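= Paired protein data =
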Amino acid sequence: MENILSGWVGALVVIPLIKIAIIVVGITLIVLAMNWIERKAIAHMQIRLGPMRVGWHGLLQPVADAIKFLLKEDVIPERADRWVFILAPAVALIPAFIVYSVIPFGPGKTFIVTDINIGILFLIAVSSVGILGIVLGGWASNSKYPLLGALRSSAQMISYEVAMGFAIIPVLMAVQSLSLVRIVEAQKELGWWFVFLAPVGTLSFFLYFFCGVAETNRLPFDLPEAETELVAGFHTEYSGFRFSLWVLAEYANMITVSSLATLMFWGGWLRPFPNVSALSFLDVIPGLVWFLLKMSAFLFLYIWFRATFPRFRFDQLMRLGWKVFLPLGIVNTMAAGVILLYWPGK
């Protein structure tokens, strides 16, 4: 009886806790690496050097920045709503990390905390809570710039979340499951990544990714944080450790969007053309490596966008979401329904 009980505790408590700890540490390290890569990549795109002084080519600059945030004075505005101001970054950060409990990073149970049959629904629902942290932080600061940034962010998320949902629906219709693991397995059975199923799969991917960039408040959709207009937007009044939580939440959401794009449209941990035996030599590369390579490519696109595109005006951003992305998403979903209805051998 004791052996059964200890095995049950290990399977349901100890092992998931170890996986959660690995994910939290791993995502934090990826965020530190992303911070350095983004600064260096944008610097080289602009013919600059970027960080150079702390470590080889500034390699330790993110560590120095993290230490600075921890040691810096944490200022709370005198007229701010103190407890809401303190809790807001946590409200934004916690959902950004909870979603990783259902994201599979590779084949088998080793690379996932839990596989639930409503994985996509759970992920979308939990990640949507993060906007509450932004709204609370902007309102609790009792300052006009954070409040404007919070209002912009809420309007932007409502606008682009609808189009993002329509971008995901064709994939769910094809797979007939909300499980992220099942979505990857369906691509293996098909022998193609969904992004290559033109025009529906290709358009779904582009809609999803551009809406994901808007959802994470990144250029050219960074209106809630527009430095030239709102100083820093919803986190203008934050400093020290709590400011670092906002940064961590933003990058964690970027990784989530990139991970979902990889899983739903680019085969997750699958190699290119998984059913082609001539490419079987690629199987020596572990699935986790394939997943991380694809995810890293999308994270690099975030950096490339920031270095390339100017910021939209807010009316342009709203027009793009409601008059371009949403109609395209609806038409694409209808096209997917018609194709699946008459798909031979379904």
